[in-house]
Amino acid sequence: MTALQDASQLQLERLRRAWRGSALPGFLRWWGGELGALVPARWRQAFAGGRRWYVVERQDEAWSLRRVGEAQPLAIADDAEDIERRIAVLAGALAETDPADRRVALVLPPGRVLRRRLVLPLAARDNLRQVVGFDLDRQTPFRAEEIHFGVRDLGEVAPEGRFVAELAATPRQALDAQLDELAGLRVTPDRVDVRDGQGLAGVDLLPPARAPRRVDRRARLNAALVAVIVLLSFGAMAGWLHNRNAALDAMRAEVDSLRTDAQRVKALRQRLTESAGASGFLARRKAESPTILPMLAELTARLPDDTWLERFTVNASGQIGFQGQSPQAARLIDALKGAAYIGEPSFQGTIQSDPTSGKERFYMQAKALTPKPGGAATHPHAAPSAAASASTAPARAKAPPPKPAKETARAHEAR
């Protein structure tokens, strides 16, 4: 477990050294100072925080407590007073600062500390205290077990491949006595340093075994707040993505619904177009189809009374076919000339005599005509001469006498 702690301490020391050696701490201090100048003085005082260092040192027969950088002591604990009084005096002076921000340094006079400059290889920088600890017998007139020492990297210019460090050492017995006395006064130093004017020299001689273990609740709270902020940030982003996906799903559903409606409307439009086309086709077919009753009426009026029909047909193209018997079948062509609904009459095959009735059996073909509004009848396939003859025929031909009712009935039966 000790090896693991040493390894972790080594890694932390490397990170601290890399941080201090970078330009970022100086930039952050400058930036914080510039931003702090924009904050009102009252606010700066209310939110002021950070570590505040106090110096405790032995002076004759008393302990003196002051702030770093100040010469006037805050409290003096005289040995002539009882221990409770001295504890109260020191505790009252330290009470002005929050315990989380309070740091106490035990200051030794310069004459009590041996200080030396060392030029070491760069490889010793990662584990400086351990490297120097192995060489204490050569660097100091004491054995390693007789002193407490501290070492620091000065950061000064050094030959290539080396760096400059400072070693500070003090007798172990004298320092342990002072630390024990301060422990009795309920004061636990965070470091042991050397007095440098009203400040500190910057070298720490406090033995690692006697260093206080502090729990920085504020740092933990800040870390927890940072974690909460990160989680809330991720939650906000996740919520935004969820809302965006939900909106996209709703839009897709709406688009699918509109697409379905559009397809339904398209199908209805197609059906309407087909229905309109079918109805138009039926209307055209109806308009183009010949009318049967006017043709039958015209045949009844134009054919002689002694002529009757056995069969009458009209196909979709307007082709008329009728078969019957007549005493003089050859005269039927002249009888049908100028008809309004029947055009181009002609015989199909030969005229034959019927031995039973004594009449001539015939089969004729003609074309159905559509009367114009003016009274003339035309057929899309009829020749102009036929239309002209049809228009003049009623003027020169006599209307035939009406046929008997039985002949009309026979014609209907034939149809």
UniProtKB/TrEMBL annotation:
Region (Disordered) spans which residues? 368-415
Q: Where is the composition biased (Low complexity)?
A: 371-398
* TM segment ranges: 221-241
Top-level taxonomic group = Bacteria
Alphabetized InterPro entries for the sequence: ATPase_NBD (IPR043129), Extracell_DNA_Util/SecSys_Comp (IPR052534), PilN (IPR007813)
Protein name according to UniProt: Fimbrial assembly protein
Q: Which Pfam families match?
A: PilN
Q: Does the keyword Protease apply?
A: no
